[in-house]
Amino acid sequence: MKKLYLFLAFLCGAAGATAQTYDLQFVPVRNDGIAAGRYEVRLQIRKGSGPDFKVGSSNIRFNYNDQGLTPLTPDPLAAEHHFDDGLNHPTLGIPTYTDMTSTGTLNGLASVNIDLDVPNFGFPTISTAWVDIATFAFTIDDPLQSSQLVFRTSAPGNTVIFADNEFTLLTQGTFIPLDEPLDGAAPLPIDLVEFSAKNDRTQALLFWTTASEKQGSHFEVEHALDGAVFKKIGSVEAKGESSVATNYAFVHKSPTGGINYYRLKMIDTDGAFAYSETRVLEFAFDQAGVSVSPNPFGSFLEMSLSWEAHTEITVALFDAQGRQLQVLWHGPLSAERQTLRFEGLEQLEQGIYFLRVQSREGKVVTSVLINQ
């Protein structure tokens, strides 16, 4: 991790100077309840106090009960949900993190390592909602033991989280441990075995399969633009009682240009629920009903929109560091198809810029532009 250890000794002494704090928790997602079975937990982060932030290079370390659990080999990371090279930055369109790793994991100590490759371009924004980091997998050695998962808060081997400027060390907030019996597995009412998402140019196609269902009620399909704050966009009735594979599908007809996150909330008849893994789709700028020309641009830009008439939008221009330079347009569209022209751009320096279009309803489209 490029900067984490270089600045650690210096910054630990100044950790209390920042008002930004973060919380961590474990969420159990799988417990087979038998020897040689799987035990999986999801690590999550949220803002504790102070302003929102984005995660930079960081090292999350925790203890586990090595009498009952062994980290899965060769890689205990069953899934990397955010902060990984498998996801593109919503404005840059490229990965800004390198591959998430788990090093130094043995003898009751585990770690999850995050490495930001492009400073100041971490994502998503961490606020008060819990954000998934990774799913960590163990093999159950002794189901008569308990998990005893505890985040490390002091040296040696303590947890450190940096902001995405790569030099602000955030202050530890509330770390929530997890200690549950390893033989207490209760099968989920809905056994989800597959969940996939497909980009169908202007809409998102979601497919999932259950191996069995017991007292299943329905699925809620949730969508997010930042991977953190999810909103319900639809519901699909579950079969309820089944011992054979059942296939489901859902169409999201209005995805946003850029990155879109999807997950399922599986709810049983008693109101208990569980979440699926998150799936990510990226839609091109013009697929969201917006096109911009010329690109590269000079003294002017023209933007054509195919959005609903009277939609109130704000068009803003940002530099490569994410700073807003100016608002180019704010107001309602007069027709379903409208072209806006922005002039006076010749004073801008050569380089990369971002054009952001946002509606009052929350629809956001971002395009990468080059000024030559």
Concise description?
It contains 1 helix and 25 strands. The chain has 372 residues and is an all-beta fold.
Feature tags:
Immunoglobulin-like; 5-stranded antiparallel sheet; 372 residues; mainly beta; disordered N terminus; 49% strand; 6-stranded mixed sheet; 1 helix
The CATH top-level class label of the largest domain: Mainly Beta
The number of distinct helices, counting runs of at least 4 residues, comes to: 1
**SS elements, strand count:** 25
Low-confidence stretches: 1-18
Principal-axes geometry comes out as: globular
CATH architecture of the largest domain: Sandwich
Global Rg: 23 Å
Tell me, rounded to a whole number, the average pLDDT. 84
Provide the structure class: mainly beta
Strand content: over 45%
Distance between the termini: 35 Å
Sketch the topology as an H/E string, one letter per element. HEEEEEEEEEEEEEEEEEEEEEEEEE
Work out the helicity level: under 10%
Count of folded domains: 3
* CATH fold-level label of the largest domain: Immunoglobulin-like
| Biggest pleated-sheet summary | 6 strands, mixed
